[in-house]
Amino acid sequence: MLTSRAMLIAAFAVAAAVIGILAVTINFTPSPPPLELKAAENHTQAKPALPLGVSPQLYAIAVPHSREPTPELIALGEKLFKDKRLSVDNTVACETCHDPAKGFTDHRGNSATSAGVKDQHGQRNAPTVLNAMFQSSQFWDGRSATLEDQAKLPILNPVEMGQKDPEDVVGKVRKIPEYAQAFNAIYGNNGTYDEIASAIAAFERTQYSGNSPFDRFLAGDQQAISDSAKRGWELFQGKGRCSACHAVNTVSPLFSDQKFHNIGIAAHKQDFAALARKALAILKTGDAKQIDELALQTNYSELGRFLVTKNQADIGAFKSETLRNIGVTAPYMHDGSLASLWDVMDHYNKGGVPNPFLDGGMQRLGLSEAEIDDTVAFLFTLTDDRFADFNKTELARQTSLKTNRTQRETDVAEGRKGDLGDIGTNPDLRNPATIGAF
């Protein structure tokens, strides 16, 4: 039998091998060449203070040496991120929809989707910026490959920040002395649109998140989470089948497969086939701005990844969003249509909403009410400690909504109605930390 020390060494050896494979297979989009910094040798790279649950290996893959942000660029990016003057009427900043105090979402109580200039509402719910640096693509439909590309689009979208074109943005920023000075100090000019996006992306690359009760549990602290949450962790990996799309390990800690799935959310509203035919007739291949506007301003939003790939298999498919901080980032799904994690569990428990493009992995789960409660308890342990108070408040709010659950269909979930496949097995699982796996 291996000793604890030997098991630990073996676990690290396995992790090292996995890291080598991930460097090839994790499919992070290669970063564009870095923009030239003025007197680059005088700009010291910021040293990341990575939290428990986020490995240095993952950081090295996601942020190659050439893209590591400097303190100066981070400070400039944070200022731009928070500045409403980037919008056409000085009313909306990046942080309007990605509030640092709300888990970098807008957590809107009176609307499922996010609001932009003139209180216009798009078709999408703002995802969190936390750990976006580790995502293989950006936005719910993956229409941007990098943080730099992502930063450019909301500024120009008519229902978000409303600027007409990049030249208008650059002209406005250059007239603000503090920005002209900062860009000149960093880049040796008064700023370009690419440099504005690069600065915002540099700030976003500092928004990593871990340090959750679950991270401490995986590290071996058996008291870090409740017995209910421990049962929920077993259900998450077993009968609940959540880990099929939201798996986690030491070098991929986001609880996301980074892929796109039709789980039936949009099927509440749309005839996908007819909508796809109309979309194909108007899409312009390679026009990122048009795709961005279709995704946010029209009913074509519900086509999801299909708008980007034009592939029929992607109709109604959206990214498996990270589950980290899921307790404080309601409402849920791409359209913000689910108010609580109980609603989310009800949706999956019945196998989603049937439609011609439903992902083949969707099937009824047959979870009891107690098992749903345990799974939700586990999900609330994935919140970063810095949001602990908010997490408690949100747990109380969502618990109060348990009696009003529009997605609950017990007969379907338990197989008395419909036909969505057999219920999977529920294996006897142990905490990986106790067997040297983490």
UniProtKB/TrEMBL annotation:
Q: List the residue ranges of the region (Disordered).
A: 105-124, 400-438
The keyword Metal-binding belongs to this UniProt entry's keyword annotation = yes
Q: Which UniProt keywords apply?
A: Heme, Iron, Metal-binding, Oxidoreductase, Peroxidase, Signal
> Pfam families per the record?
CCP_MauG
Q: What is its main location?
A: other
According to the UniProt record, what class of enzyme is this?
oxidoreductase
Q: SUPFAM superfamilies from the entry?
A: Cytochrome c
Q: Which domain of life is it from?
A: Bacteria
The Cytochrome c domain sits at 72-180, 227-383
List where Basic and acidic residues composition bias occurs. Answer: 406-420
Q: Where in the cell is it found?
A: Cell envelope
Which GO molecular function terms does the record list? cytochrome-c peroxidase activity
The EC code for this enzyme is: 1.11.1.5
| Protein name, entry field | Cytochrome c peroxidase
